[in-house]
Write the structure tokens for this entry.
Amino acid sequence: MTVTPSRAGDEGTTARRGRRRRTGAASDPSAQDLGTAVGTEEEVLLPGARAASPGTAHPAAAEASDSGAASGADVGGERNGPSEVPPPTRGFLAKATLVTAALSIAGALLGLGRDQALAHLFGAGTETDAFLVAWTVPEVAATLLIEDGMAFVLVPAFSLAVARRARGTGGGDPVRALVASTLPRIALVLVGVSALLIAGAPYLVAGLAPGLPDPRLAVDCTRLTATCVLSFGLAGYCSAALRAHRRFLAPAAIYVAYNTGIITAMFVLGGHWGVRSAAIGVALGGCLMVAAQTPSLVRQLFGRRSATAAVTPAGAAAGTRKVSDAEGPDAAGPEAERSAEQPSKQSVTHSVNLALVTPVLLFALCRQSQVLIERYLASNLPSGAISHLNYAQKVAQIPMTLSLMLCTVTFPVLAQALAEGDTERARNRVEHDVSVAACIVLLGAAAVFACAPQIIELLFQRGAFTARDTAATATVMRVYSVGLLGHTLVGALVRTYFSAGRPTWYPLAAMTAGIVATSWIGAATVGAWGVSGIAAANAIGITLTAALLLSGMNERRSVPIHTRRVVHELSKPLRAAGCAAVAGALCASRFDSPALALLTGGLAVTLVYVLLLRLLGVQAVAPAFRTALRSVTRRLPHARFR
């Protein structure tokens, strides 16, 4: 049985939905974009349910609302009721995004420090290539288990369970029931996969990089990094649960802990273990990711508020029949108690199933296979090619990571809107997120293209990393920057396909088309263009996937957005970024000092880009910036650990 959150127009639904009456800012599209419920909400009556009096608001729902618990719809075993937890306000989303972005920047800076340490200690030669082949395991595991795959399934499932807890539907705590039914099975699968990778490391290395001159070092590193499958899986599980509870601090801090573990291991153990110390650091960092989130998750599962919500009777909760005083406390009887308990158990048990998980994980694996293709093609090039690709990709993807912070925070909000059948709010949410994310990533892409040589020289050119490595890496990074918009659009749009809580194979088909294009173009160009041809294939393939996902946004598959309007709006920052990149490159080329050239080029890119955005009439960034600026002076209620 698959739990499919109800949407407007779904067949078979009998629930009558109350319409929000908005006052004051009701016509403000930015307020609607941010999911802010303004005014009052009419009571929703379901067949067989009695109206609750105004003074009998459910205490568990009020407590969950105070604590910022994510809301969802009561679906799967019974008819939809009203959301007991209101959508987050614009200020909350801004604060959550700022916290997530700040810690993500810290994690990204530590990631740069990790790559700098790797380049300084081991250069860009055979040893580093061997480790980077083993690095494929944590890269794929992060995509499948933390960033995309598991999150697309578990965030909606936990949002639904949190909403059930807020309503106090009886039959125990739905969140704990979900954990009890899923965590042991997931952990068992993760242990088995880790063991399989450790045992099959020689075959994995041979398949990933058949051209390595000495595969034994890569095999040793792969066996160490394979342990991250278990730790990343547990970390991703904790992150999904906490985000559904609207707790963003601990999930955002995991890469700070992860990269700290790797850097520490390289400097402490590098003299004796060589590049194997970096693989040991991956294993240590994965454990730190779990440790950083465990206390917060335990408090959400077993804290005072969750316990109160779990034991409070349903009372006036939506979709349940309230027993009057005249009928007596035993009027409902055991049959009514079982009927109240059964839907909760069904939803918890079946909200995560194979039919829903399979397309999500296959999509994430297919997306990550771009890295596998790149390293497979580069393994037959001269020594250092894999390293140049790795360093260029890590730096170039920083703007993409920052641009998706808002989408990470609003993912539970989008899932809630779809679960409630509020298609209009979901559409506005998606269009707003895509516009803001595109504006941010294109500014970063223009800066990367304009100042690539200076960035690489300042970050990596020391120790074993030579000027030749700088030139090769900078060239590749400029090619990668062309595909950053495609990567961002894929990350932003695919959430909408998997937020509805029902299986869909369209994202996998779109990603497969992109991978096929990447493979063919890479194989055709690697001989003539080397690593630049591989990077160009990556950019073209991911752009094709983004175009397919954008064109497939409709009521049947996802959220029916205004595609032509979105494309028209995206063309504005794209044109501005092209002009800004040229202007920045010209300014940076006039200075010999890399620091001065980077400063001048970066300023030129920013000024030209912002000016052109104003001239072209792009309005998406200014409201978000003003809201974020107001939010930094306010208390961050969601940033606490409990």
Observations:
- The CA atoms of residues 520 and 537 lie 8 Å apart.
- The first strand starts at residue 20 and ends at 21.
